[in-house]
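Before surveying the methods themselves, we first show a specimen of the format, giving the amino acid sequence and backbone structure tokens:

:::
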Amino acid sequence: MKYDDLIDQQTLERATLIRQAMTLAGWRLGTAAKALGMAQPRLLRLLQRALKTSALGQIWVEYRKTKPRRGRG
């Protein structure tokens, strides 16, 4: 099975949405890749709202406040 076959439509939509949002905020691609890894529905809703309001930075700050950081072990 090819890697491309593993990527379903929802994942592609997430990737596109996150790419748009990161570009809007001027974030680098590496940051976008990390965000894609934790693209839960809540984050996607926040990103969609951000794309409409162009307030991604503030929404991201609010999102990070609600999600405790995981330490690296």
Notes: The longest helix spans residues 9-25. DSSP finds five helices and no strands in the chain. The two ends are 33 Å apart (CA to CA). The mean pLDDT is 63.
